[in-house]
Amino acid sequence: MVVKLNFSLLMKDKEKDLGINPPFAVAGGVIEVFVTDFDPTYGRDSLEIEGQKAVLTAASGKKLMAVLPDVSEGICSVERSRQDIKTPIGDIIAGRIIAKDMHNVANPAIDPSDGAVIVTRSGSRGQQLPNTLYRIEKDGYIDELPVSVMNPTGIAFSPEGKMFVSNRAAGEIYIIERGEEAHFFAGGLGIVTGIAFDAEGFLFAGDRTGRIYRIDEFGSAETFAVIEPSVAAYHLAFGPDGRLYMTAPGMTSSDAVWAIDSEGRVETYFRGFGRPQGLAFDHRGRLYVVASYGGHRGIFRLVEGGEPEWFVSGQDIVGLCFGPNAELVVSTRDTVFSLPVGRS
User: Fold this and answer.
1) For a tag site, which of 23, 165, 325, 335 has the least CB within 10 Å?
2) Of 318, 316, 344, 340, nearest in space to 328 by CA
3) What does residue 234 show for φ and ψ, rounded to 5 degrees?
4) Pairing mode, strands 52-53 and 45-49
5) What is the rounded CA–CA span in Å between residue 173 and residue 152?
6) How far apart, in whole angstroms, are the C-alpha atoms of residue 251 and residue 232?
């Protein structure tokens, strides 16, 4: 069910100067709560989220930083409690857990044939696990695919609906047939991580040492562009303008989101994120990036020329993708959440 609420970046009650930021979060995320004359000394004031006393990481008379409890799901009420008198502040929408015990290195993906979510249990580099690819069906059932790919990282579907998976340990990409067989498609791609298809059916792959490959239908790869090396996985997504957008997380607080045109020319789309990772475009062509920015962590909505908008709070988020029912699928390193973000 899609929940439609009228959220702005800061849901603010002008009369009481109260509000919550951002509008969405996953368990463990830190949210901002704006209050008046909050006094935490001797337990005089406390904050409750869905009836549970919230852990505060910082507090002043006007702003609190509160951790979203692990049990939070759906629309959660945020209240101030003073001498057993509770005063509503607002609501926040918390992600619903749809899978645990995964190991996500890049974005999850949506199977275009039926809307199932595809996720990975990747393991450490060179580690072969018995089950590495999973389908999360619409009814919530988690299906272990019988095929096993070592260190599956990037997942992408071709325009014809075939699933491709990268193996960062071997520098190879495989075609997954019916979820049962893995057929070699391309190799010699370094520490290959993120992959994405363009509208013409070319597959693009990021080697985190700095090289972007364009691969034709026969698995023949050529260097398309070269950017900065990364300490983690490259993440790739094509925008509505036909350009290839990507992140290459480093060790600074000023990493870039790159945009590469059809000729391989690299431009800096935005610089200033800390360790940007997964990225995806919504139905309106707006870009969302997993990163740290302005002291916050989570997912940011980014419009060219504008300031990043904090959209989802969460710790250790790696990737994201948009499902067919106005849902946002968010993956941390080991957990996958669903958020009903609507079509706002």
Assistant:
1) 325
2) 340
3) -70, 150
4) antiparallel
5) 9
6) 10
Tally of CB atoms within 10 A around 39: 12
**Domains of the chain by residue range:** 11-94, 96-339
Provide the CATH number for the domain formed by 96-339 in this structure: 2.120.10.30
Q: How far is CA 117 from the centre of its chain?
A: 13
Whole-prediction pTM: 0.91
Whose structure tokens read 């629309």? Answer: 75
CA distances (Å), origin 289, targets 44, 66, 96, 140, 274: 39, 22, 20, 26, 11
Look up the CATH number of domain 11-94.
2.60.40.10
The three-state secondary structure class of 51 is coil
Classify the C-alpha dihedral 59-60-62-63 as positive or negative.
negative
219-277 pLDDT, tens digit each: 999 999 999 889 888 999 999 999 999 999 888 789 999 999 999 999 999 999 999 99
pLDDT of residue 21: 96
Of residues 252, 171, 255, 239, the one with CA closest to residue 205: 171
Residue ranges in 46-145 assigned as alpha helix (H): none
CB 290 within 8 A of CB 319: yes
CB-based contact 302:290 (threshold 8 Å): no
Q: What percent of the chain has pLDDT over 70?
A: 94
